[in-house]
Amino acid sequence: MLVGVPKEIKNQESRVGLTPASVKELTLRGHQVLVQTNAGTAIGLTDAMYLGAGASIVDTAKEVFARAEMIVKVKEPQAQECAMLHEDQILYTYLHLAPDPEQTRALMASGAVCLAYETITGANGGLPLLAPMSEVAGRMAIQAGAAHLEKSKGGMGLLLGGVPGVAPGHIAIIGAGVVGTNALQMAVGIGARVTILDKNIDRLRQLDLIYGNRVATRYSNAHSIEEAVFDADLVVGGVLVPGAAAPKLVTAAMIARMKPGAVVVDVAIDQGGCFETSHATTHEQPTYVVDGVVHYCVANMPGAVARTSTFALNNATIAHALALADKGWRRAVAANPHLKQGLNVCHGHVTYEAVAHALGYTYVDPDTLLV
Ligand SMILES: NC(=O)C1=CN([C@@H]2O[C@H](COP(=O)(O)OP(=O)(O)OC[C@H]3O[C@@H](n4cnc5c(N)ncnc54)[C@H](O)[C@@H]3O)[C@@H](O)[C@H]2O)C=CC1
Ligand SMILES: CC(=O)C(=O)O
Ligand SMILES: [Mg+2]
Questions:
Q1: Which domain-ending residue is among 299, 319, 337?
Q2: Could you give phi then psi for residue 344, rounded to 5 degrees?
Q3: Does the model's ipTM exceed the 0.90 cut?
Q4: Distance in Å, CA 370 to ligand 2 centroid
């Protein structure tokens, strides 16, 4: 198969869909790979490394999109990229469609076969192609929050760990999945007081066994969220209902009653965000203030540590990339129910139920398109 890797064009995004090592896996199996020039240069993955792995380098994204049978990316395609997709071309990347009607419309219009990393399931449960970026974003959430609690960044001027004689700050983490538990690890490490909330009591039970009385676990409902949020200096939002728009668990009225200069980090922003007052921001302009509360809502947090993130992402994406290249999308998807869960848009139809529900499209069972 001819596989294409364009340079990412989202704001401050230097990750790249395939590393030279991943390219080598493909070329060793007889596939061809086209990489746009300088796709990885910003993170030290040079054109020479890609050539050494057996790729061809081309000058423009236009050429990559025109020639490749499968496009491997990181971020959801931007409007100009959607316009270059063509009928039956495979697009393998993050999509986050539920809160994004324009992108969904454009992907449907393209006729392409669009597989979303974030809805591919794993044999042991979970979302293994989302997990590595959630690990990165969860860990970053605490450092981003800590930085924005500083006076010069708009925060209340608080050191999360405190100092001898001064109490530490309070971090509330909503959602105890991959983002939440990675944020928790950093929050405990920094010396803050921590509350973590989830609806999944088994998850809270596991965390209780690990952290004991170092962390307060709370069953998540409107009451416990309110209590935690009003007392917190930093709130991290890491909830997910797979494929669906994030539930708005923290209302605008709750934000208005938070401490002045508190910070919220809405990691779930790529699914629309779990704070009612959230809207997506960029690494260039990461925050804005609502009712005295600093909002950090960067939709591609791992892009800031693009080198670490690219390697972590490739570890999780390469196996399905090889299957898609070896077998073509129909056979690869038919052979693997977990990969089938990634099919969000195919030949003009929405093939992922939560996306169809969120955006008012008729859901089409992917099995009907495999024949
Ligand atoms: N902004 C960014 O750059 C990034 C954003 N993300 C996003 O972060 C979000 C979380 O991802 P993961 O941690 O991997 O998901 P996950 O599935 O591992 O965890 C989500 C957790 O939310 C919990 N949850 C669901 N409804 C809840 C409620 N009402 N109250 C409390 N908890 C609730 C679930 O029980 C689960 O434990 C996703 O939207 C993901 O796309 C991930 C990576 C980067
Ligand atoms: C998961 C995601 O949206 C990201 O890594 O940017
Ligand atoms: Mg994102």
A1: 299
A2: -100, -40
A3: yes
A4: 28
160 torsion bin: left (phi>0), alpha (psi -120 to 50), beta (else): alpha
Both tokens assigned to 129: 């192609």
127 in a structural domain: no
* Shortest-distance Cα residue to atom 2 of ligand 2: 300
Write down the residue that tokens 């042991």 correspond to.
124
Measure 76 CA to ligand 1 centroid, in angstroms. Answer: 18
Q: Is 360 left (phi over 0), alpha (psi -120 to 50) or beta?
A: left
* Distance, CA of 69 to CA of 83 (rounded, Å): 16
The CATH number covering residue 327 comes to 3.40.50.720
Q: In this structure, are 100 and 180 located in the same domain? A: no
Is 266 among the residues known to form the active site? no
Q: For a pocket test of ligand 2, which of 130, 178, 266 has the largest count of ligand atoms closer than 8 A to its C-beta?
A: 130
Q: Are residues 277 and 139 in the same domain?
A: yes
Give yes or no: residues 178 and 271 share one domain: yes
Nearest-5° angle of CA 29, CA 31, CA 36?
135
Query: What are the distances in angstroms from CA 124 to CA 127, 207, 275, 329?
Result: 9, 19, 30, 23
Domain around 60: 2-119+306-369
Where would I find the H helices in the chain? 20-28, 47-52, 61-67, 79-82, 101-110, 131-148, 178-190, 201-211, 222-231, 252-256, 306-335, 337-340, 353-359
Question: In this structure, what DSSP letter does residue 364 have?
Answer: -
Query: For 44-73, how does the pLDDT look when each residue is reduced to its tens digit (9 = 90+)?
Result: 999 999 999 999 999 999 999 999 999 999
Q: Are residues 312 and 263 in the same domain?
A: no
Task: Tell me: is residue 270 an annotated ligand-binding position.
Answer: yes
Q: What is the number of the ligand closest to the CA of 195?
A: 1
What is the phi/psi pair of residue 206, to 5°? Answer: -60, -45
pLDDT digits (tens, 9 = 90+) for 290-321: 999 999 999 999 999 999 999 999 999 999 99
Report if residue 97 sits inside a domain.
Answer: yes
φ, ψ dihedrals at 323, nearest 5°: -65, -45
Question: Is residue 256 one of the residues assigned to a domain?
Answer: yes
3-class state of residue 50 by DSSP:
helix
Structure tokens at 265: 């980090």
CA distances from 218 to 86, 169, 172, 179, 182 (A): 48, 18, 10, 17, 17
